[in-house]
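@channel sequence for tomorrow's demo:
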Amino acid sequence: MHPEPPRRVAIFVHRFLPETGGIEVTADVLARGFQDRHGAEVLVVTRNEAPADFDADLPYRVLRAPSHRELLAAVRGADVVFHNNALMQFYWAQLLCPRPWVVTMRAVLRVPGHRISAPRELVLKVKERLIRRATVLAANSRMMAEEIGGDPVVVHNSYRDQVFFVTEPVQGRDRHRLAFVGRLSADKGIDVLLDAVARLQGEGMPVHVDLIGSGDEEPELRARAAELGVTEAVHFHGNVPGEQVNELLNRAAVMVLPSTGLETFGTVVLEAQAAGCAVAASDIGGIPEALGGTGVLVPPGDTDAWVRVLRSLILDDAAFARAHAGRQENADAHRTEAMVDRYWELVVQAHACAQRPRRCAEGRRR
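structure tokens (generated this afternoon):
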């Protein structure tokens, strides 16, 4: 006799829409998929607030900045708790009201090269021990799996295929038009990109960059663009809806991801490929895994290398064709349903552990 499938899932996520980072977006994708494809009743629980009435347009419930009582009620009402990246600030409620739980890790706990104080190291060790106690542990890339240990299940991110697709002819796009999508933060390497753009413009190339996203570094990046004399070539769009991001990507020939910090996957490269862009991205973290042998990988933080790569993509037909090859096949391999269904299998597995506790140890290993 098969155990009853889970019907109520609480998704824990540190920050959520309207922010548009990878963790926030995948939480939305999973909430919709668990509900629409698998009939679950979904409650998203998050620490960040949103404008009034924002959540009214979402097809599932959202609990923001919950009180202790609200958080405990959310856990009590769930068949399974799903951490979209470990949110240990909410873990106390699971101690008071135990539920089977799935953790998928999407961000590193330790940044290579950064020194950690002794108190912080202790906190991280406790967090790691708690994470490994999850009923089912997963990671969004092999790189992330190696980082956290514990033999997690690897489930690659998907992209929102109902949002990102080709609307403008791929052939004939202006190769001088580049796009970046993501947070405007120091670890994204946008300063390196601006330096490369300035040098290419100095060679007479009318390069234009659409920077799509917002972040703490925006004032510094605007100042840097002005200092380099490329203000007219750099357009800051801020956070915009996914449909508008797709429009901007469809105007670009190349999407650039010049990250200098450790990316655990890089979903944006899939979105760009689905929208018809060739991709040039830093050879760091899980980005090569996301590209799957397509696109062009560039040494992180190397302005000279970025200038060479972008110059070749603009001027060399063969180089551009190589960067473009396989982009649609790679995007197709990461459609939404594949990720949603695989994570649902893990939710079902965790729920089965609660009904047949002897299988929990096995579930943690898978």
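heads up for whoever presents: The chain has two domains: 8-158+335-365, 177-332.
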